[in-house]
């Protein structure tokens, strides 16, 4: 490449805060990205951070966020620390004038998330929530099919996310696993369709002190429902989502790389009474449609690499990311309502529509 600055100097600098479970994935994808110059890895456990950064000689390690923010070349910070720390770390970075990418959930509470969104807005900075599944080829395809009208009006969404997983020390299974499915739902639904209420039930059969198995049902403004099952105790791993539409039904099996999405031209049709004659009114109004199944081809690309690319695009253009802070707030709003429902033995709890969240 002739002329201009070296590629590394043209790229904005970024730091990763947190070298635990998700931090190494961010480090790997940022190092591979042509959009970013990864300069720092920050973690209170500097030995752990040093092990993660060892393959990358250009990445400096520190246990202090102040070191990171003292580097004028760092224009953005990617946060992969426990949820209870998201507010403090992100707020410090925003107040230092840095763009921020935060792993899910955006914060530990809706109030903390709202504080981050307001701070980013006031300073004209990008705040993005790493709702990674929204950047998979499968979820992108599902969103396109719904928004194009291919599936028709959405009648129901049913998701299962279960496995034999780690019992988290600071959150229950709802706050650990449900953000994935709630962020997907927020991303794929038309803008006119919003959750209005949620009912959640759960159990702690092992006596861990937190819910390990949970079910939640969302009422949508369109009259449809969305249902989710999250579970840390299942000996089998299942990752499926079904979207039932008035025209077609879609099944997404994330553990089947050969056929992640199947679209069925099958369903139930209901004739309108006004369209029928007197004799026909006595007959059944329901008919069943049995058509073909198609499995659309999908590209394979790591979702986090797409999320990193989207963060760069948002920073470069000054426009919101596809999963911006407000998307993170909408998920937090549902999680808090679900937690209240869980505490009230499955009572239906309203999901308040906050003007700050907009869609």
Can you lay out the helices and strands and say which pair or pack?
Elements: H1 7-10, E1 13-17, H2 23-32, E2 37-42, H3 46-53, E3 60-62, H4 65-69, E4 74-79, H5 83-95, E5 99-103, H6 110-123, E6 127-130, H7 137-148, E7 154-164, H8 173-188, E8 195-203, E9 213-220, E10 225-231, E11 233-245, E12 249-253, E13 261-270, H9 278-281, E14 286-294, H10 303-317, H11 325-343, E15 349-350
Parallel strand pairs: 1-2, 1-4, 2-3, 4-5, 5-6, 7-10
Antiparallel strand pairs: 7-11, 8-9, 8-15, 9-10, 11-12, 12-13, 13-14
Quick synopsis:
By secondary structure, the protein is α/β, with parallel strands linked by helices.
Kindly list the characteristics that best describe this protein.
alpha/beta, six-stranded parallel sheet, 11 helices, 15 strands
Number of helices: 11
What is the radius of gyration computed over CA atoms, rounded to a whole number of angstroms? 22 Å
Number of beta-strand segments: 15
Net shape: globular
Percent range of helical residues? 25-40%
From the structure provided, what is the oligomeric state, counting identical versus distinct chains?
Answer: single chain
Amount of beta strand = 25-35%
Task: Report the biggest beta sheet as strand number plus sense, adding barrel if it closes.
Answer: 9 strands, mixed
SSE run: HEHEHEHEHEHEHEHEEEEEEHEHHE
Strand order of the largest sheet: 14-13-12-11-7-10-9-8-15
Secondary-structure content class: alpha/beta
**Uncertain spans, ≥5 residues at pLDDT below 50?**
1-8
Overall residue-averaged pLDDT value:
91
C-alpha termini separation: 42 Å
């Amino acid at each position: 490449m002739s002329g201009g600055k070296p590629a590394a100097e043209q790229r904005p600098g970024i730091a990763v805060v947190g070298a635990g479970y998700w931090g190494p994935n961010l480090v790997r994808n940022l190092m591979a990205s042509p959009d970013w110059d990864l300069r720092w890895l920050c973690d209170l456990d500097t030995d752990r951070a040093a092990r993660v950064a060892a393959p990358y000689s250009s990445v400096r390690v520190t246990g202090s966020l102040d070191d990171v923010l003292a580097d004028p070349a760092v224009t953005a910070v990617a946060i992969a620390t426990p949820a209870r720390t998201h507010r403090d770390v992100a707020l410090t970075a925003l107040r230092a004038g840095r763009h921020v990418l935060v792993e899910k959930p955006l914060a530990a509470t809706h109030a903390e998330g709202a504080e981050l969104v307001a701070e980013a807005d006031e300073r004209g900075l990008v705040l993005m929530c790493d709702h990674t599944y929204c950047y998979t080829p499968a979820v992108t395809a599902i969103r396109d099919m719904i928004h194009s009208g291919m599936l028709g009006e959405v009648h129901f969404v049913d998701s299962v996310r279960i496995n034999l997983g780690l019992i988290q020390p600071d959150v229950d299974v709802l706050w650990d696993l449900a953000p994935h499915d709630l962020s997907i739902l927020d991303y794929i639904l038309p803008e006119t369709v919003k959750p209005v209420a949620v009912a959640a039930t759960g159990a702690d059969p092992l006596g861990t002190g937190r819910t390990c198995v949970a079910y939640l049902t969302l009422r949508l403004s369109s009259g449809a429902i969305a249902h989710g099952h999250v579970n840390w105790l299942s000996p089998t791993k299942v990752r499926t989502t079904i979207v039932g539409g008035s025209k077609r039904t879609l099944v997404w099996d994330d553990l089947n790389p050969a056929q992640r999405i199947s679209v069925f031209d099958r369903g139930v049709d209901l004739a309108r009474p006004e369209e029928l004659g007197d004799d026909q009114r006595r007959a059944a109004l329901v008919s069943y449609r049995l058509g073909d199944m198609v499995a659309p081809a999908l590209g394979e690309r790591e979702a986090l690499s797409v999320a990193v690319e989207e963060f760069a695009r948002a920073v470069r253009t000054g426009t919101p990311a596809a999963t911006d802070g407000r998307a993170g707030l909408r998920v937090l709003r549902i999680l808090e309502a679900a937690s209240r429902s869980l505490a009230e033995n499955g009572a239906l709890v309203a999901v308040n529509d906050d003007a700050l969240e907009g869609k």
